[in-house]
Amino acid sequence: MTDRSPPLSPGLKAALDYGPLFAFLAVFLLYRDRTVTWGGETYPGLIVATLVFVPLTLLANAVLWAKTRTLSVMQLVTLAIVVIFGGLTVWLNDARFIKMKPTIIYLVLAGLLGLGLALRRNWLGVAMGEMVPLAPEGWRKLTQRLVVLFLALAVLNEIVWRTQSDTTWVLFKTVGLIVLTIGFFAANMPLIRRYALPEDDSR
């Protein structure tokens, strides 16, 4: 018999998933027209927001680990990219790194899922199986669609940050990407229902 941690409450899970992101948005909106001078260096609002976002993301993952004793490969990869690119953003005082972060994350996730498909490994099922138990064919089709989504979001992020204002990009990153992701899963509900396993078969 395995010793499993109790599931997170919906409120705590939402706070851990989205708290750092919306803190990033709030700090940016507060400081977007101001600068902060620290250690003789002047930092614009986007850098200040990043300085808040990175430690909050680390804290959220630490709480998640303490509560569940598990972090998925995708969560670890995302955390590593956040720390590296967020750290470079603050260290070099260059917002291009934080703007490229979503592109790198989506390309890495698309690559991992694509590699899983090539190796016939159900890595998406390992990450999401408890939330959405599906038959193998359902996981394969959903993985294929997610690869396309991640590649499209990587391209879209590059277009937005290179052509739009900081404010537009921050809103796209914090609100737009969430809406697009929710829309993707809503559009794929027919597939999920078609391949969903009965509760007894998903254990």
UniProtKB/TrEMBL annotation:
<feature type="transmembrane region" description="Helical">
    <location>
        <begin position="43"/>
        <end position="66"/>
    </location>
</feature>
<keyword id="KW-1003">Cell membrane</keyword>
<dbReference type="Pfam" id="PF04279">
    <property type="entry name" value="IspA"/>
</dbReference>
<keyword id="KW-1133">Transmembrane helix</keyword>
<feature type="transmembrane region" description="Helical">
    <location>
        <begin position="72"/>
        <end position="92"/>
    </location>
</feature>
<keyword id="KW-0997">Cell inner membrane</keyword>
<keyword id="KW-0472">Membrane</keyword>
<keyword id="KW-0812">Transmembrane</keyword>
<feature type="transmembrane region" description="Helical">
    <location>
        <begin position="143"/>
        <end position="161"/>
    </location>
</feature>
<comment type="similarity">
    <text>Belongs to the YciB family.</text>
</comment>
<protein>
    <recommendedName>
        <fullName>Inner membrane-spanning protein YciB</fullName>
    </recommendedName>
</protein>
<feature type="transmembrane region" description="Helical">
    <location>
        <begin position="104"/>
        <end position="123"/>
    </location>
</feature>
<feature type="transmembrane region" description="Helical">
    <location>
        <begin position="12"/>
        <end position="31"/>
    </location>
</feature>
<dbReference type="InterPro" id="IPR006008">
    <property type="entry name" value="YciB"/>
</dbReference>
<dbReference type="GO" id="GO:0005886">
    <property type="term" value="C:plasma membrane"/>
</dbReference>
<comment type="function">
    <text>Plays a role in cell envelope biogenesis, maintenance of cell envelope integrity and membrane homeostasis.</text>
</comment>
<feature type="transmembrane region" description="Helical">
    <location>
        <begin position="168"/>
        <end position="187"/>
    </location>
</feature>
